[in-house]
Backbone:
């Protein structure tokens, strides 16, 4: 597992006060897409400008940030994905009178960045943690695209990670199928995105490729959270078996 010391974990900045109307604010989302079964993560490479990055981009109008993260992840990398609930320290309240008991795992952004676009326009970027899709869901979404007579790789919103599924159960689905996650071709929506390449890299290698950016910590901290979830679930199972 990657440790914070191996890449120099960044710290949060001090809080700021700023105000932007809708004409001066752009909201975006990015994602680290893990293939949990093999401890790899999707990393993109700009074939002309020669740099590594995680997929990200502006959310569409009226689109929520989480969905935008999944869609951008797909369009820029070619890998279908869905957000992966993880144990994460955050400041959001628990649901009031929830239908189901609160889960210790959430799909909140693991990092948020504020960056100026121009002297008067602001960009806010949310980074999420996701996983590649299981083979059966990948096949179903491809079938939907086919039935709608769109390109086989056309974007379809995936089902969320099942609330009652553990990571161990999820990994077993992958091992039973024994297949590599599908990378769709020509998913970029403009000429710039057609220059992007994408690779499934071991977590340690991905962190090194992204070294010096917040994206390195998105991957490093994200993978630590994935491993922590597995440990929490294993402990719960052992506790039930011991009773």
Residues:
């Amino acid at each position: 597992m990657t440790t914070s010391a191996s890449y120099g974990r960044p710290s949060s900045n001090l809080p700021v006060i700023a105000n932007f109307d809708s004409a001066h604010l752009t909201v975006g989302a990015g994602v680290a897409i893990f293939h949990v079964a093999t401890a790899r993560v999707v990393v993109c490479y700009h074939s002309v400008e020669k740099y590594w990055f995680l997929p990200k981009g502006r959310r569409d109008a009226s689109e929520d940030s989480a969905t935008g993260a999944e869609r951008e992840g797909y369009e820029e990398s070619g890998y279908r994905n869905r957000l992966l609930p993880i144990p994460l320290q955050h400041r959001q309240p628990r649901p009031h009178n929830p239908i189901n008991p609160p889960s210790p795992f959430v799909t909140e952004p693991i990092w948020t960045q504020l960056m100026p676009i121009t002297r008067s326009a602001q960009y806010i970027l949310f980074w999420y943690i996701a996983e590649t899709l299981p083979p059966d869901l990948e096949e179903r979404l491809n079938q939907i695209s086919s039935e709608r007579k769109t390109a086989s790789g056309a974007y379809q919103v995936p089902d969320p990670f099942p609330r009652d599924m553990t990571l161990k159960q999820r990994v077993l689905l992958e091992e039973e199928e024994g297949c590599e996650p599908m990378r769709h071709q020509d998913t970029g929506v403009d000429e710039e995105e057609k220059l992007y390449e994408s690779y499934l890299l071991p977590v340690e290698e991905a962190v090194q490729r992204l070294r010096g950016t917040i994206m390195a910590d998105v991957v490093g901290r994200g993978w630590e959270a994935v491993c922590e979830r597995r440990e929490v679930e294993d402990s719960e199972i052992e506790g039930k078996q011991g009773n």
